[in-house]
Design goal:
This protein is mainly beta. It has 2 helices and 10 strands. It has a single domain, classed as L,D-transpeptidase catalytic domain-like, CATH 2.40.440. Strands 1, 2, 3, 4, 5, 6, 7, 8, 9 and 10 form a 10-stranded mixed sheet that branches.
Length: about 170
């Protein structure tokens, strides 16, 4: 699917849920592509659905710029832990948010902004996770998961308010 450009931007992130890929467009050209994992519940905008919201978003916050690879975050704050398989076994029920966070805010009122569909209020992020969870299948609780090293590269490329188009 080709995005209908929001505000005529040629610099945006394209998240394709069908292919489980995030593509970075700069000047209308592909700068980079990364594998991702979106929601195991599929696409959807409603709060509490644990689905990945579609449509145009923007990066509303960049969190963790100075943190180490695999730093653990809870509530957007670093815990001081560094993820390891042993830590994963110690806390098997955790939804691992690692390395960096790009917090998304919806740009389309009634679709992914305001009320029960607001992506920011749903705490929808692009964030790191254990690399083994990026295997071509949707597994998240609504967010876009990435490998840690890929996320650091992306984090260093994007800016606040950069637009993100999420689609099937």
């Amino acid at each position: 699917m080709t995005a209908v450009l929001f505000n005529n931007t040629k610099n945006y992130l394209d998240v394709c849920l069908a292919s489980q890929q995030l593509t970075v467009y700069q000047g209308g050209n592909v700068l980079a592509q990364y594998p991702i994992s979106s929601a195991k519940n599929g696409p959807g905008e409603l709060r509490g659905s644990e689905c990945t919201p579609r449509g145009w978003h923007q990066i509303r916050a960049k969190i963790g710029a100075d943190k180490a690879l695999n730093s653990v975050f809870i509530g957007r704050r670093p815990t001081g832990e560094i993820y390891s398989p042993a830590l994963g076994l110690q806390y098997p029920a955790r939804d691992w948010i690692l390395t960096r966070i790009l917090w998304l805010g919806g740009l389309e009122p009634g679709k992914n902004r305001y009320s029960a569909v607001d992506s920011a209020w749903r705490y929808i992020y692009i964030h790191g996770c254990p690399d083994e969870l990026i295997n071509g299948t949707p597994q998240s609780h609504g967010c876009i998961r990435m490998k840690g090293t890929d996320l650091i590269e992306l984090f260093n490329t994007v800016s606040l308010r950069q637009q993100v188009f999420i689609h099937e």
